[in-house]
Structures are given as structure tokens and as C-alpha cells.
């Protein structure tokens, strides 16, 4: 399903009907101490489990926290969230593949109805966000709980709440170089990357970035190859002629269970499981099953993860909105 960036761009242009470059004429509802955050309630989401009710509750709770913080700092302004639904539109699918035009359509709707707030909580799908920046001259801030792909990098007005793919590649390159950890006493220069084609949205873009020949990861390693499908993965586990002992996999532990089963694995094999937003690892008394023996998990501490993020006191969304109102909004802070 992945296409090279140029192919993708052309394909997208063909796909959003009647649309050339579009400059939104926006009257922002953002003055006289009145701050409004416009939330695009999209049918396509990077997170299959998130319903629009969840999102609405989370944003409302976040706004409430911001209000309380502002009051306790003696700043009396109105902070509101408005939710914009794609009514009557034909976005039936809920995964990101059909999301390209939904964000744009919503954005047009907002601008025709003059409902634009100070800041936009935009799409979480990389395609949708990419398309918005491709086709519009977006000069107000946008927050995204996703947009993981490299094609959403370096957008001045975009703040991504969760770790984008670029951040992951930089971390992995640094980690490959490290040689002074108790469990890693020499640096690595090679890797295999497992890609099955059935990954979740975040993993899709993470693996996409590791695969891309132009990415930092690919350029820093001496050898990198993709393992496509379970067969190729399983063959490498005992292959005497393999060129790397490190395999990057993205997903939850059950992916390892189904890949490894009771298979024989060479002692030297290390699997790096990228599973950033899973809080299970931090629960009390978790014990690693046998199949996790060769696996190092890369994850985020729950405070930084997506789980219940919008509800927690210190969530990124809250602090971004808060900073925005305070006037030292930092577009590039979260990279
Ligand atoms: C926004 O705030 C104003 C003033 O507090 C309030 O009257 C209005 O109902 C709010 N709108 C929404 C959508 O919350
Ligand atoms: C998403 O699509 C489903 C199925 O067509 C529909 O029932 C639902 O109302 C849509 N949700 C939104 C937010 O548009
Ligand atoms: C890999 O993809 C196949 C379908 O193409 C699926 O049946 C299988 O469960 C996937 N394996 C993993 C480990 O995700
Ligand atoms: C975790 O294990 C310890 C020691 O085995 C036990 O005392 C404790 O109750 C366990 N905690 C939970 C939440 O199961
Ligand atoms: C999310 O956070 C709220 C408030 O902090 C808490 O009541 C709720 O149980 C949490 N939900 C989950 C699924 O952890
Ligand atoms: C939020 O941040 C403050 C300081 O920045 C810290 O003291 C507090 O424990 C944090 N709260 C949560 C729920 O993480």
C-alpha cells in the first residue's frame, strides 16, 4: 500500500476532486480574550480504538484543566473547544488509507462557516495532514495526535503530540552506536527490519521511515535489509549466512509470539520491539513470557504515552494549549 512520495503526491492530487492549491480565507475566532480550539472530528483515525466520544471527552477535560490553571494564575479568558464533524460526507472507512481528503473537506467547511478557532486539532492520519499542507497555505497552528510519517516533518505550524518517525530513527541510530550499557557493550552497524504489511498506523510510518533509503537510519548503517512477511523473518532466525543479528519489529508482544512460536533461535539474535504507546510493561508484577527472551522492548513511560494522555494533568495537549494562550507557543518543541 506504500507508494513513493512523488507517486503518492500525484495520486493524492487526482484523488481530491476539484482541488488545486487553496488558500483558506479564515476569520479566526481568536480575540478579545476568547480562545477557541477547533477539533476536527474525523472518521479516519490513526487509532482504531478511539471513538469520537472518547476524543470529545478528552478534549473537554483538557480544556477544563487549562481553564483552571489560567484562573489560578489570575488570567481571565474564555477557552472553548468546538467540534467539527464530517456530516454527510462519504468517509465510511475508519483507517487512515481513505483519509486523504477528509481533513481538507473539514477545513473548507470550517472556513466557509467562519468557525476557525485559534488553533486546529487536526487529523491524526499522516495522509490527511500531508494533504492539508500540500494543498493549503496553512498559517495557523495545528496539533496532531499522530501524523507520524516523514512527509509531515518540518511543518512550521504543526505540533505532533506523539513521537514521529523521525524521532524514532534518530533514537535508534544513537542506540545502535552506544557501547557502554550493561546489556550492550559494543556498537551495531547493521539491521534487518521486519515488515509484514499488516501494521498499525504508527508502526506503518515507523517502519516506512526505517525502510526509506534516504532516511537517517538507512544512511548511518553499513547494512540494512527488509524482511517481508513471516517466512523471511523465520528463515533469518537460524540462517548461518545472515548479515545482521539485529531485527527491528514494530507491534505488541503478541506479534513476537506469533512470529517465534517455539522456533529455534540463534543465541546471537536480538529483536528490538518498537511498542511505544503500550503501558502494559509498567504494570505491577509483569513477567516476560519465554518468547520474549531475545527481545528488547522500546517503549515510552506511561506519562509520555498515548494512553489516557489527554486526561492526565500534564498531558501534552493541555500544556500546548496552555502555552499557546500564554503566548509562548513553541511550534517545533515536539519536533
Ligand atoms: C464558549 O464560551 C462561552 C463563554 O463562556 C459560552 O457561552 C459558550 O457556550 C461556549 N461555547 C462552547 C461551544 O463551549
Ligand atoms: C463514520 O462512519 C460511520 C459509518 O459510515 C458512520 O456511522 C459514522 O457516523 C461516521 N462518523 C463520523 C464522525 O463521521
Ligand atoms: C502477517 O500478514 C499475514 C497476512 O498477510 C497475517 O496473516 C499474519 O498474521 C501477519 N503476521 C504478523 C506477525 O503480523
Ligand atoms: C506482586 O508480587 C508481590 C510478591 O510476589 C506480591 O506481594 C504483590 O501482592 C503482587 N502485586 C500484585 C498487584 O499482584
Ligand atoms: C484515565 O484517567 C482518568 C482520570 O485521570 C481515570 O479516572 C481513568 O480511569 C483513566 N482511564 C484509563 C483507561 O486508564
Ligand atoms: C505534573 O507536573 C508537575 C510538575 O511539572 C509534577 O509535580 C506532577 O507530579 C505532575 N503530575 C502528574 C499527574 O504527572
From TrEMBL:
Keywords: Signal
Family annotation (InterPro entries): Peripla_BP_I
Keyword Signal attributed: yes
Cleavable signal peptide: 1-21
Top-level taxonomic group: Eukaryota
Name assigned to this protein: Guanylate cyclase 2C
Species whose genome carries this gene: Rousettus aegyptiacus (Egyptian fruit bat)
